[in-house]
Amino acid sequence: MDDQASSSSTSKTSAPPESSDTAVADQLPSFNVDIERTSESSTSALPLDPFQLRDGILSEEEIAALRRRKRGKRVAKYHKKQNTLIASVLKPMEDHTEEAKVEEDAARLPVKIAIYASLIANMFLCVLQMYAAISSGSLSLLATGIDSVFDIGSNVLLFWLHRKALKLDVNAWPVGGARLETIGNIVYGLMGSVNLVVIVESARNIITKGDNELQKFHLPSIIAVSAALAVKFLLFVYCFSLRSKSSQVRVLWEDHRNDLWMNGFGILMSTGGSKLRWYLDPTGAIIISLGVIIAWGRTVYGEFELLAGKSAPHDFIQLIIYKALTFSEDIIKLDTVRAYHSGPDYFVEVDVVMDAKTPLWKAHDLSQQLQDKIEVLPNVERAFVHVDHETTHVPVRLIFRILLGYS
């Protein structure tokens, strides 16, 4: 199941390929029961397995035996991953949808708590850290204080965009507001470049300072930032288990994680600047500011990948291939399967092949049913299922690319 093919044909006589572009060659001997209709959303009955994938599942004892062999840990890890993948593709699509809905309902309140707790805490900590920076005159603490101001802005922007996305007019914005949060993360991340001001001021301080006098140690400032560090740690722990449930919480978790080392490092360098060497404080400010810029830069890059259409995870594409290929015996081949990001969720394209003599109403109904089932899978924003009767044609878009010299 791990070999990936591109622009080839996928048939029901071989194990389903694992690629985002798949085509079909031969025809599977007819199997009389539809895997989707048989399951009836029940996990108690085993779903049909026309490709005998279940034969590839290893027991825990077999995996343990592999792990004991020389260099067997990687092999055991591979087979454990294969077990999970096989179980996933054999599970009815209704079960995937229902489990995702149950998880979403269960996480709704914890996610709301994480968002509001982070917003309220960041407002309080911003005041605390700016007091520490101003009263101590420490550049390292100033860098952490500026970052705390951005924390509030980030929280407010994410919260507003999330509410805005839910209320968008579908006539004016047909694809909905799913991409608004992604765009907001990019715009706000670029604003992190304000830390360049701290870098310039710290560098100027190092260059122009004419004496080696240590700055005055200000204990209340250190206590204030230490309190902020403790609160951030609690928020980090709470958001850790919820980061996969919501894109908002994931961004908040990353923010709390970054703040942990920034605040901790800021305390060390500010204290070092007043107890050991004066230049430790501005040096710490430069390092913290660079860390903030790099952290936000990575966030911006990741969000750009989502808007640019990054491919969905390989395991998800395999799930779509298998479910489409086994959806009905009238689907004899798969020509193309693609799944890619359009914001935080996926767009899925499936080109199925049916017999040329299939009635139009039947081809339409089957493709529509498959499309509806895919669209309710978790993390799928939109699905498109197209029907053809052969796989020898060349897509028009590829012809134009060839004529224009792009491929």
Brief summary:
The protein is an alpha/beta fold. The chain contains 13 helices and six strands.
**Overall mean pLDDT:** 77
Structural class: alpha/beta
Q: Got a strand count?
A: 6
Distinct helical segment count: 13
Strand order of the largest sheet: 2-4-5-6
* Strand proportion: 5-15%
Q: For the record, what is the CATH homologous superfamily label of the largest domain?
A: Cation efflux protein transmembrane domain
How do the helices and strands line up, and which of them pair or pack?
Elements: E1 6-8, E2 10-11, E3 21-22, H1 35-39, H2 60-68, H3 72-90, H4 93-136, H5 139-166, H6 180-190, H7 195-208, H8 219-240, H9 247-275, H10 280-308, H11 314-325, E4 331-341, E5 346-354, H12 360-375, E6 380-388, H13 396-403
Parallel strand pairs: 1-3, 5-6
Antiparallel strand pairs: 2-4, 4-5
Describe the 3D structure.
The protein is α/β, with parallel strands linked by helices and 407 residues long. It has two domains: 6-92 and 312-401, Cation efflux protein, cytoplasmic domain (Alpha-Beta Plaits, 2-Layer Sandwich); 96-308, Up-down Bundle (Alpha-lytic protease prodomain-like), CATH 1.20.1510. Helices cover 60% and strands 9% of the residues. The protein is built from 13 helices and six strands. It has helices at residues 35-39, 60-68, 72-90, 93-136, 139-166, 180-190, 195-208, 219-240, 247-275, 280-308, 314-325, 360-375, 396-403, and strands at 6-8, 10-11, 21-22, 331-341, 346-354, 380-388. Strands 2-4-5-6 form a four-stranded mixed β-sheet. The chain has a two-stranded parallel sheet with strand order 1-3. Helix 2 runs antiparallel to helix 3 (72-90), helix 3 packs across helix 11 and helix 9 (247-275) runs antiparallel to helix 10. The two termini are 29 Å apart.
